[in-house]
Amino acid sequence: MMTRRLTQLLLGLAMYGISLAMFIRAGLGLDPWDVFHQGVSEKTGLSIGVVVIVVSFLVLLLWIPLRQMPGIGTLANAVLVGLFADLGLWLIPEFFHLGGQIALLAGAVALNGIASACYIGARLGPGARDGLMTGLVRRTGWSVRLVRTGIEVTVLAIGWLLGGSVGVGTVVYALAIGPLVQLLLPRFMVPEGKPDAKPGVAAGAVLTRPETSFQGAGWHRGQK
Q1: What is the C-alpha to C-alpha distance for residues 42 and 106, in angstroms, rounded to an integer?
Q2: Alpha helices, DSSP H only, in the chain?
Q3: Residue 99's Cα: distance from chain center in Å?
Q4: pLDDT in tens, 151-197
């Protein structure tokens, strides 16, 4: 079972990074955190993959006062998504025709949904950004919706000011990813109660950036 979980984790993170590259190549807008990553990339000259990795580890530092504990999936997420995003940007050409951009955006949303379900279903630890959000919820007592919205509006605004791409893709992602992951997640969720299951990793603790989009809206487990 652990082999399945690790394989599913790695495939999910690889697909997530590739889907990020597809969103960028579509040129129609990114999700809030990736608007921020792209904006930082534009200003620093670093590749977006490197920015994703650096931001992930900086956010992990904020876990310390929140007393959050990373899992295998947390550390893998911090490294692999950025690496595969850069690989995807190297492999995927830019699209300048609107039809191609729309098709690429649709493919990116679909792949991101599958990737998210794979990663969440592996139950091997939350992503850095989601751990920040859940830690703040636990420490402050504020609602998930309030904390998530506050974080995402902040990074979206900063990213946009830095030159990140905000557009129809941002809206499509926000509306589509939650229901899509909710639909796919049961197919990829590793059952609880297996001998190799780690007692410290509960289902509600395993969150990813896309999952929070629908949790904050109250579509799934009530929790990005």
Answers
A1: 25
A2: 2-26, 32-44, 48-61, 63-66, 72-91, 98-122, 128-140, 144-162, 168-188, 209-215
A3: 26
A4: 999 999 999 999 999 999 999 999 999 899 999 999 999 887 544 44
Q: For the chain, how far is it from start to end, CA to CA, in angstroms?
A: 27
State mean pLDDT over 212-217. 37
Instruction: State the amino acid at position 172 in one-letter form.
Output: V
Read off the pTM: 0.84
Domain boundaries, the chain: 2-215
- 42, exposed or middle or buried, with CB in 10 Å at 0-12, 13-18, 19+? middle
Q: Assess contact for 72 and 1: CB atoms under 8 A.
A: no
CA atoms of 188 and 121, how far apart (whole Å): 5
- Asked if residues 185 and 54 have their Cβ atoms less than 8 Å apart, the reply is no
